[in-house]
Every structure is written in C-alpha cells, then in structure tokens.
Amino acid sequence: MAALPEPPALHVIDLRQLRAEALDSLLAEEVEDWRRSLHWDFRASADLVRRFVGMRALSGAALQAGGRAVGYCYYVTEDRKGLIGDLYVADAYRTAQAEEALLSAVLEVLLRPGFVRRVESQPMMMLAASARDAVGAPFLSTFERNFMRLDLAASANLPAGPSRDKLELDNWHAGLQDESAQVIADAYYNHVDSLINDQYRSPSGARHFLTNIVQYPGCGSFCAPASFVAWHKESRRLCGVCLSSMVAREVGHITQVCVSPAVKGSGVGYELMRAALAAFAAAGCREVTLTVTASNSKAVQLYESLGFRTMKRFNACVWDGF
C-alpha cells in the first residue's frame, strides 16, 4: 500500500510579501465562515484587507502551505497601543499550533521594547488555546466573551418597564458625542470591560471609540435609526447610550449599551434595548446580535430576559506590563 503524501509544511511570512489576489480564496472562505456561524456579512472587512494588502500597507503575518496562503493575521498601532484586528486560518489547517505561529509572529513585533505599551485583540474566530502558547504569554490576560443572538420574531412587543415614564429617548447623533463619551467613561469606571478596552477609561478615549464604531466597518455599518440616548426627565441629564449597526442585510448588532452609575439597575438599559430592537424590527431585520463579557452577569441576565441566547464563546486578549 502506497504511503500517504506528507501534508505541506506550514511557514510564516510577512503579510506585505503577499499580493492581494493570493488571499482571495482564504478571504472567500472567511466570508462564508462568518455568514454561516455568526450570520454576519464580512465582505466589507474582507475588501479592506484585500485593498490594504494590495497597497503593501497592512502589517502582519501570513501562513503558507505549499506556496498557498492558508492563514493571516494583521495589526494596527495607535497611541502606542497595538490592535490585532483579525486572525484567521483556513479550516483544513486550523489548529492551535497554526494560529499560535501566526500570533507569535505578530507579537514578536508588537512586544519589542519601546514599540507599544499594550496590545488588545478580540478575534472571534480564534481557538481559545492559541494565545496561551504564543509569544508574550506571561503578559497575557484573557476574558471570556459571549456572542449572543436574538430572533426578533420571538421578542416582539416587549412591554414598557417602570422607568419608561422617567425617560426621554432620542436617536443618537454626532452632536451628542461629548456627552455620550462621558456616560461611557462613567459607566465603565472600575468595570471589567475597561480592562479589555482602555478607551473606556477616559472621556477622550471614549470619544475615539465612538468615532471608530461610527466610521469603520469592524462591527458593521453604523445604524442611526436603531441608536438611542436616554435623558432623565427630572435632571435633564444624559443617562444612557445604545449604539447599533447592521452586520448583514437582515441582521442588526448592538455595538454598545451603557448607563450612568446613578441610574444603573433602574431599567434604563432595558428601555434603550427595547427601543433599538423595535427599530431593527421596523427596518426589516430578522435577528440581532451582541457580544458581552461573560463575567458581566447582570448584563447577561438582561439580554437573556430579552430573548438573547449565547451562540459562541471567544476570548478577548490583552497583553500588558511588558
């Protein structure tokens, strides 16, 4: 009996060595993977990757097998922070070892002395074990996150809560950015999510976060009709923010929902979510998704009470103190 051929050896190269068309089949598989497992349309993000690889302007690493690209990982840097934007390996080659090789190649650059002070990543398609064995493990903290999905038909006509009469809800707009940034910074003070994303720790960082989610397609296309703010009628102060996006033609996504500490637990978050879900339904959406840190039990309970169910778990990764 003839011996089976040896699988091609895997090796890592600089992402800027690739031509854009070398990623075509890999990106097509990733687009289908996101559509099948998350119900997200990843095509806009894939097009950005293809464009910047073609310009030799995207930093990162690629995994090759037999001369063919079977994985990639890219990063960007801003304000001395590294952001690992995506890590994906084709299904036929997806192992923790393959992902670790890509991640280590990127971290070897990011963790070198004097380059950045911190690295963050939330790769939803990465295996949980990959980061633990990569370069920089002594500086790594991981936070389990839930990817949750709601069937809008099963949650129609949610009743108003007891706080509704105390609130005025308006659609969010850019003129509310400064007040919204203050609510975000206040809401995440000493909160686990500020360990995952350090932009939550200050109003200036929160403003930058707001700009990113409104202008860039990482969490879909910003959806103003399903984005709301809550005003406390008595004090006339902004006390809650809910921002939304479209991640596919009939799938909405809650990118951010937070409330001021003074009204936390009073039902403001519920009313913001109720308004966003009604707006998504009116826009013809069938489903809504969101992500939440698993240890944020009160938020998880709220979302479950609305009908959301956890479909996938993934890790947010932070490398700090190096």
Structure description:
The chain has helices at residues 24-38, 43-54, 96-110, 177-187, 193-196, 203-215, 268-282, 297-306; strands at 10-14, 59-65, 68-78, 81-89, 118-121, 140-151, 167-171, 221-222, 228-232, 237-248, 251-259, 287-293, 309-320. Strands 1, 2, 3, 4, 5, 6, 7, 8, 9, 10, 11, 12 and 13 form a 13-stranded mixed beta sheet that branches. Helix 3 (96-110) links the parallel strand 4 (81-89) and strand 5 (118-121). By secondary structure, the chain is an alpha+beta fold. 30% of the residues lie in helices and 31% in strands. The chain has 2 domains: 10-135, Aminopeptidase (3-Layer(aba) Sandwich), CATH 3.40.630; 148-313, Gcn5-related N-acetyltransferase (GNAT) (Aminopeptidase). It has 8 helices and 13 strands. The radius of gyration is 21 Å and the shape is globular. The protein starts with 9 loop residues before the first strand and ends with a strand. The mean pLDDT is 95.
